[in-house]
Amino acid sequence: MNTNHDFMDHWLTIDSIQNKIKKELENVLQAEYSLSLKEFYVLYYLSKAPDKKLRLQQLQEMIGLSQSALSRLVGNMEANSCGALEKHVCTDDRRGSYTRLTDLGEKKLQRSLVSFREILKSYLSTVNVEGLMKQLIEEL
Question: Which domains does the chain show, CATH number per domain?
Fold first, then answer.
């Protein structure tokens, strides 16, 4: 039986790097843009969608939140205090509702993408992620 578990060390290193980056992203997004990482992802996915709108169920699958958690998150982002999203009722199925990215939400996303890129660049420039992934794959 092979007891060499180097693959776990490489996996844990990658996991640790990702966790550090997520924590830094969360801190900067919250401090500079009043956004959580999940809210940032909502803005990003909506910016890529046709007409910058998605059904809540689609967003739920993309973001990985429960239906109630996503409804709360989107509701807060649709509130007048934030204004990054606006709610739309589906015309062909009144039970379905969409949320759409507003101009304010788009501007918030574009500004926060600059910080997002800077953080990724600063962390990933110090680590050979490609090498770690290659070693992990070889050891599996």
Answer: 6-130 (1.10.10.10)
